[in-house]
Amino acid sequence: MNTENLHELITNIKNEVSARYVFPDVAQSISSFLESKLNTGGYSTCDSNEELANAITTDLRLISNDEHLRVRYSSEPHIPEADGDVIREQNDRQTHVEQIGFGIAKIEFLEENIGYIDIRELIEHNRAAEYITAAMTLLSKSNALIIDLRKCCGGDPATVAWLCSYLFNKRTSLSALHLRENHEIDQFHTQDWVPGQRFGEEKPVYLLMAHYTFSGAEMLAYDLQAKGRATVIGETSGGGAHACQFVWPTPHFSLLLPEARPINPITNSNWEKAGVKPDIPTDANDALATAYNLAISHLKNRA
């Protein structure tokens, strides 16, 4: 990358962070650091655009201690969304989510009719809602439900709320997002009515986590745990609470930018940096067996 293009990239990243990052004081520290490093030629030694993106990402996270911040390079230039479209990073986003089963890796019925769903990503609500509905309807008659988030990287808070709607019988408040730019609050809640069949709120839910579990997946775990709706099993999660949007400092470089912080109505807090603490700590590899045994025990005690 030539000097002029590098200056444009760093300047645009600085401007986006300064205007939109969730904490204004941290945004100022990031901006000052990037400007200083640019002026001293700190990025000029990068041999490729991918290396440059990684170097900027490392610096953003070093200054902010926020694992959400990320710069990524793509050889294919970004195609801007039409007005009203959901902002996405990939030009082939729809194809991508179809290829990964709309974030659902597996649905299974274990012995004693214990339902199991392995979620790898909570895909944007407008793309995933009907598939969440189909999955939860299929699992609705299970005696207990295990939700596996051990390999879930996160996703859309609206999808979190949609999934939670199948685990409660009526409208229930979840975490709200406190937005920096206009000081508004985006309140999430379950729905009074959903298509398909609810699993409901009477039967037990066990939620599996690993340290890898992050972002929107942590929101799902945190909100269900705070409501006493799920038993969380496994490892403390990664600790990425802030809600993000994609922006493009240049057509080939995307910036994942945290713009809001969630506040749960019960804890009046969130899981940023601390992660979600499991109710039953165990190695992630043992979490499924632990959850299954707990479900079997619950069913025997109920009989």
Describe the structure.
With 303 residues, this protein is of the alpha/beta class. 35% of the residues lie in helices and 21% in strands. It is built from eight helices and eleven strands. The strands form two sheets. Strands 2-3-4-7-8-11 form a six-stranded mixed β-sheet, with helices on both faces. Helix 1 (3-20) runs antiparallel to helix 2 and helix 2 packs across helix 3 (49-64). It is elongated, with a radius of gyration of 21 Å. This is Interphotoreceptor retinoid-binding protein. Pfam families: Peptidase_S41, Peptidase_S41_N. It comes from Chitinimonas prasina. Residues 93-283 form the Tail specific protease domain.
Which SSEs are present, and which pair or pack?
Blueprint: H1 3-20, H2 24-39, H3 49-64, E1 70-73, H4 93-99, E2 104-110, E3 114-119, H5 125-139, E4 144-148, H6 157-164, E5 173-179, E6 185-189, E7 205-209, H7 216-226, E8 231-234, E9 243-250, E10 253-263, E11 280-281, H8 287-302
Parallel strand pairs: 3-4, 4-7, 7-8, 8-11
Antiparallel strand pairs: 1-10, 2-3, 5-6, 5-10, 9-10
Helix pairs in contact: 1-2, 2-3, 5-6, 6-7
Describe what is shown at a glance.
With 303 residues, the chain is of the alpha/beta class. It has helices spanning 3-20, 24-39, 49-64, 93-99, 125-139, 157-164, 216-226, 287-302, and strands spanning 70-73, 104-110, 114-119, 144-148, 173-179, 185-189, 205-209, 231-234, 243-250, 253-263, 280-281. This is Interphotoreceptor retinoid-binding protein.
